[in-house]
Amino acid sequence: QVQLVESGGGLVQAGDSLRLSCAASGLTFGLYTMGWYRQAPGKERELVANIGSGGSTDYADSVKGRFTISRDNAKNTVYLQMNSLKPEDTAVYYCNARRWGGVLETYWGQGTQVTVSS
């Protein structure tokens, strides 16, 4: 059974930093592309950042230069370092694991709330 468990969310002020973690179990972590998505109230879920199995990364334009995604395959964990947070970063942040092996496998965590006050 695959589980993705996020942690590290909270309430911060604009300009502060947070680091989110997502611990994965029940899958061969190193084979999966890991991503962070977020969903603000009344908005659709959007991609924040991805990191491939080989370590390649990509980011939403809105977070480039402020957020950094990384992974530790030995710990089955993906991180999202968020710096210079803005009120518009307020959302529930979800961890995602996906792999194409003939069919698309995709898994989601339960989400962690990030609230940035101005």
Largest sheet: 7 strands, mixed
Give the count of helical stretches. 0
Average pLDDT score: 97
Low-confidence stretches: none
Structural class: mainly beta
What's the end-to-end separation, in Å? 40 Å
Strand tally is 11
Beta-strand residue percentage: over 45%
Helical fraction equals: under 10%
What order do the helices and strands follow?
Answer: EEEEEEEEEEE
C-alpha Rg (nearest Å): 14 Å
Global shape: globular
Describe the structure in your own words.
- The structure is a single chain.
- This protein is mainly β and 118 residues long.
- The chain has no helices and eleven strands.
- The strands form two sheets. Strands 2, 4, 5, 6, 9, 10 and 11 form a seven-stranded mixed sheet that branches.
- A hairpin with a 4-residue loop joins β7 (67-72) and β8 (77-82).
- The protein starts with a strand and ends with a strand.
- 30% of the residues are buried.
- The mean pLDDT is 97.
In brief:
The chain is an all-beta fold. It is built from no helices and eleven strands.
Spell out the blueprint of helices and strands:
Blueprint: E1 3-7, E2 10-13, E3 18-25, E4 33-39, E5 46-51, E6 57-59, E7 67-72, E8 77-82, E9 91-100, E10 104-108, E11 112-117
Parallel strand pairs: 2-11
Antiparallel strand pairs: 1-3, 3-8, 4-5, 4-9, 5-6, 7-8, 9-10, 9-11
